[in-house]
Amino acid sequence: MVVQRGLWFEEFEPGVLYQHRPGRTITEADNVLFTTLTMNTQALHLDAAFSEALPPFHQRLVNSMFTLSTLVGLSVAQLTQGTIVGNLGFSDVAFPKPLFHGDTLYAETEVTDKRESKSRPGEGIVTFAHTGRNQHGDVVATASRKTMVRKRPEGAE
């Protein structure tokens, strides 16, 4: 039997780059739902007529918080499914180019650091550098994320 899971602390190695597939094509419904659920009334996400009149994009932009959430979400099955204790923080978040309805977001993650927890035996801190690219290969989002990850339990594969 094979059970899908993320990686234990011991399995992470700094410098390793993971490409997460498949990507996620972002729809108008995704953007409008996320934007309204999070009470973000920014017209650039919701009002097509308003957005079409504004240079330089002349169309609605995908909510950058949705972009960030999806970027991290794309990494979960491969890296942290069932092994993460929690996120400790995000830094260096940037959105060099916007996503638009119909764009596909692809994610990659590099492990940039890891260390054992000083206060929580059985856990360690892993730092990830996430990069999101659209279907053209343009970088649309980057973020550094610190996580608390479980060490391999006794008897686990």
Structure notes:
By secondary structure, the chain is α+β, with helices and mostly antiparallel strands. It has one domain: Hotdog Thioesterase (Thiol Ester Dehydrase, Chain A, Roll). Helix content is 22%, strand content 36%. It contains four helices and five strands. A five-stranded antiparallel β-sheet has the order 1-3-4-5-2, with helices on one face. A hairpin with a 5-residue loop joins strand 4 and strand 5. The longest helix is centred in the middle third of the chain and has 16 residues.
Uncertain segments:
none
Overall residue-averaged pLDDT value: 96
Sketch the major β-sheet: 5 strands, antiparallel
Can you tell me the CATH topology? Thiol Ester Dehydrase, Chain A
| Alpha-beta classification | alpha+beta
- CATH architecture classification: Roll
Shape: elongated
Number of strands: 5
Share of residues in helices? 10-25%
Biggest sheet strand order reads 1-3-4-5-2
Structurally, the number of domains stands at 1
Number of helices: 4
SSE arrangement, N to C: EHHHHEEEE
CATH homology group:
Hotdog Thioesterase
Q: Strand share of the residues?
A: 35-45%
What CATH first level would be assigned? Alpha Beta
Cα Rg: 18 Å
Distance between the termini: 12 Å
Region (Disordered): 127-157
Pfam families: MaoC_dehydratas
InterPro entries: HotDog_dom_sf, MaoC-like_dom, MCH/BMMD
Family: Belongs to the enoyl-CoA hydratase/isomerase family.
Chain-wise SSE layout:
Elements: E1 17-25, H1 28-37, H2 43-46, H3 48-52, H4 64-79, E2 84-94, E3 104-116, E4 123-133, E5 139-150
Antiparallel strand pairs: 1-3, 2-5, 3-4, 4-5
